[in-house]
């Protein structure tokens, strides 16, 4: 399993995407406000995602 790093963009749960803000032992904290349709989703701006439940879309350069 590849663990994301802060700044990486990850995809999880039915196509939601977000930028990793913090990496914890078993999860990452993800900022989903980078999505174009964020306001339409009516979700909190930050969410916690287990390492098993995301894929890395873009890594920080």
From TrEMBL:
**Protein species of origin:** Ectobacillus funiculus
Name assigned to this protein: YkvS family protein
- A Pfam family matched in the record: DUF2187
Identify the InterPro entries for this entry: DUF2187 (IPR018690)
